[in-house]
Amino acid sequence: MTSLTPSARSLPDTFPAFSNGDVEIVLTPAKKLKLHADVLRGGSSKLSELLAIEHAAILNKKALSEGTSVRHRLELVDVTPTPGGNKIGANGRPISERGAPRASMTLSSHGVDPASRAILSAWFSVFGALYGNGIHLYSHASSSMPAPIPDNDEDINIDDYELGRSTATTAGADLCDIISAASTILDVVDYLELRSSVLAPLELALLGAEQTLWQSVCAAPLSWIEVGARVRSLPIWREAALHVVGGWATGEWSEQEKGELPPEVRELCARKSARFEAYKERLEERLLTYKHEKLRWDERKDKCKPKKQHEPDVFHWQAQALWSQWLAAKFSEGEGRRARDGGFALYKKIWEGAFCDPVEQAKIAPLVPGGRRRVGKIMDEMKADLKRMVDSIMISKLRLDQSKMQANRLTPFTIEIRNAPWKNKDADHEASGHDNKRVLLEEEQKLIPAEEEDEFEDFISYP
Fold first, then answer.
1. Which of 163-172, 255-264, 323-332, 420-429 has the lowest mean pLDDT?
2. H/E element holding 76?
3. Beta strand 31-35 with 23-28: parallel, antiparallel or unpaired?
4. Structure pTM?
5. CB atoms closer than 10 angstroms to residue 217
6. Which stretches does the entry tag as region Disordered (predicted)?
7. Is the pLDDT of residue 183 over 80?
């Protein structure tokens, strides 16, 4: 019986192994891919260099008759000084002589084993993205990996190559895993100098994690503001930027940590934070001087009241004293804009009306039930005014579900696509080669104010 040759057997014509693939990619001796040079060159500047036509092996007739198609072999190693030469002989098989040059892909793993599952998963996902596959983030909670391509073709199990069974997922990823996985993939993308189009599948993979992603951003916003910019994802970058601005003036991060941000991002965060701090200072001054409408008096318009007309105001003054003493106590305890949370806890209590309850009221001025109800009603009127004064800064523009994880930062800021650090670079690139697009871009910019404003409704001057 005649044995089957590689050309006669049925290889899966799908990622990660194509029967007519002319590039063998060795991630580890047990994990290999068989892909197309044209596809890889079209998606990567680095691979265009490594897989140049002049580096391809020239196969002899015997290799061609046996159905051999591999003309390039790339191997993932930890470090190497140069890409090296070709390592495929005329028979289509690797050259085994000691010291033979190799066409290698190298990725510095910063001392981590390059065969680690996270790094292998990143490379596998990036190559899959070049074939239109989704990117799946590896986490320690997920252990699935692409099946290897055996050196012996007859041992191949077609089912092992089903993409749905051979990729990791974001399900179960913890807050540290997800940023580590994204950063590893981005390192591969940067090393291979991939076209920016490959970033879209990565963004979709990250956004697919939903609340796990937003919780991770909340836990490490300085890291995610960098990752969001590298992915060019406005939702991710904006979420991280909101957290960073909210914690900028609270001492949450050191000056050294802030200084490591890109200059344009650092300037944006500092500018918005300074504007917000000035707003909170005016707000707290207004909270301190707030009075119930019944007690407001303008010496330029109002006449002095006689004693008899003041007596009915006693309940209003009791409510006023209750509020003033409570707020003074909170400032004395360190709450407010100078607190570690930037005033979040204090403003939240005011916004929710969680202050000056009947128990506190009784400590200041014991009243009969009717009088207590009267003061309570007046206090409710004051709470409505005070809530309106802090409404604007209690609006969170985060995607984070704070019923599951509390941010404990004020995040009412307006952050737009024009604030993104990659926006100017894209505009410059488009302008250099597309005059029509440049004119359109300039026309659109005319519709946008020169300076963005955080639209805090100015209820601090509420009469």
1. 163-172
2. strand 72-77
3. antiparallel
4. 0.77
5. 31
6. 81-108
7. yes
